[in-house]
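Internal QA ticket QA-208
Title: Verify multi-chain structure generation after dependency bump
Assignee: T.L.

Test input:
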Amino acid sequence: GENVEQHPSTLSVQEGDSAVIKCTYSDSASNYFPWYKQELGKGPQLIIDIRSNVGEKKDQRIAVTLNKTAKHFSLHITETQPEDSAVYFCAAISPGYSTLTFGKGTMLLVSP
Amino acid sequence: DGGITQSPKYLFRKEGQNVTLSCEQNLNHDAMYWYRQDPGQGLRLIYYSQIVNDFQKGDIAEGYSVSREKKESFPLTVTSAQKNPTAFYLCASSMPGQGGGEAFFGQGTRLTVV
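Actual output:
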């Protein structure tokens, strides 16, 4: 089955800096890669996703890049704000499976 | 508003008791999922269902049971056989078959065994 590794497990940045979270996956057939943001005590919320037919996708301050050859994808947050502080999860799914495989999460702390 | 509703938000259980967590969705999604979240463990899949009256075990199904009698509902029962049930439980739904459907999560139920 699929295996997703996520790094780093914690990330501290100053407000206004950029943050990058990286994930690798094992199944070369995986074709959908979402990113979720989870605030304390709440359920994860989808913030951006990318499919295997594109290499990059942007939505305001967040972007995701995908390198299919290397089997890794990354979340980029620019101009970080304190409200970006949360746990971020990456995930992957391949056509032969019915469920997402999640990374173990990255706790992002943005200091004012 | 469309979404997924989990209830209750907090639940306390005595050892040896079964308890059922509710999950309802009005997104008309075919698939529903239950995850368990422990600190540092990420999201671990307990059970999932792709269609009414059918469900499959996930990675950590022991000590749990589910039913899927209606498309909108996917309740999870934590039985007394679950050795360490204290955790944050998350329900999700999606519309698979779209090359990997977006999964939407509820707000979770925090279960504490006392």
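Spot checks passed. The interface with chain A takes residues 4, 6, 31, 33, 40-43, 45, 48, 50, 56, 58, 90, 96, 99-100, 102-108, 110 of chain B (CB under 8 Å).
Status: verified.
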